[in-house]
Description:
Elements: E1 5-7, H1 10-17, E2 26-31, E3 40-44, E4 47-54, E5 57-61, E6 64-67, E7 72-76, E8 81-86, E9 93-99, H2 101-104, H3 108-112, E10 127-128, H4 131-149, H5 156-181, H6 183-202, H7 205-209, H8 214-221, H9 225-236, H10 240-256, H11 263-269, H12 275-286, H13 290-296
Parallel strand pairs: 1-3
Antiparallel strand pairs: 2-9, 3-8, 4-7, 4-9, 5-6, 5-8, 7-10
Helix pairs in contact: 4-5, 11-12
Amino acid sequence: MDEILKIDTIEQYNNLFGFQTLHPLVSLVDFDAPERQENYRMTIGFYGIFLKETKGCVINYGKSNYDYDDETVVSFAPGQTVGFTRIEGVPPKSIGLLFHPDFIRGTSLGQKIKKYTFFSYEANEALHLSVEERLVVTNCLSIVRSELQHAIDKHTKGLICTNIELLLDYCMRFYERQFITRQNMNLDVLSRFERLIDDYLDSDLVEKNGVPSVQYFADKICLSPNYFGDLVKKETGKSAKEYIQLKMLDVAKEYLLHPEKSITQVAYKLGFQYPQHFVRFFKRYEGITPSQYRVSS
């Protein structure tokens, strides 16, 4: 597991595990045979979405790993490093859909692929499926499989892309359901987020490190930035960045009530490198400049 393989193409991946390449840019792979149960780490050059059907392996992404007890979906994007570790004595069973960015270029799916933020979620943020949801996923995969087994013609690309897009849209819906069913956990994350923002703005970190970032708080809460951002948006209706900035705005207003603090001092106190950036930030939300706000308060 020390070596990281560089797997740029679908054919390279299929050759590594002994799968047949039916299409150079798309593949559906089944991990259900002993000869395919080796450990690996690789940096991939394509998208992958795996339905994990039984307990039998640890899939890791980045610094996280997760031992799945039930049916889950994990997703990977080009450039990510992923790994698979077999659990001794338990045969894994999973289905993977792989598709190269070149395959979806110029299609509706290619135009909206970035909206599927779950491709950048960590492994421990996997999608856990109900029985009904699993049927939807397997139905989409079955259609793709059927198309790959069919002779390639002028309809192949459109039909496969349509069904991949349908699958990803369903995954978005299922993730939204998961955010709702984990609401207590989500509220705990929001409470921690609130405390972390307050602690950051009350400390010297803001002057040392500047305006707080979404990445900073996601790291502190041990979530990927995308998952964290989607969770905050689902619970508050605001993006994580906007949520941070509104908290900064509240603090700015408190500072501006103290006339001994100049606008420049307030700007530096909030982590802005240049006072004019603070003025633009304040006016964007309040419609007036900090000086005008101070006069009217």
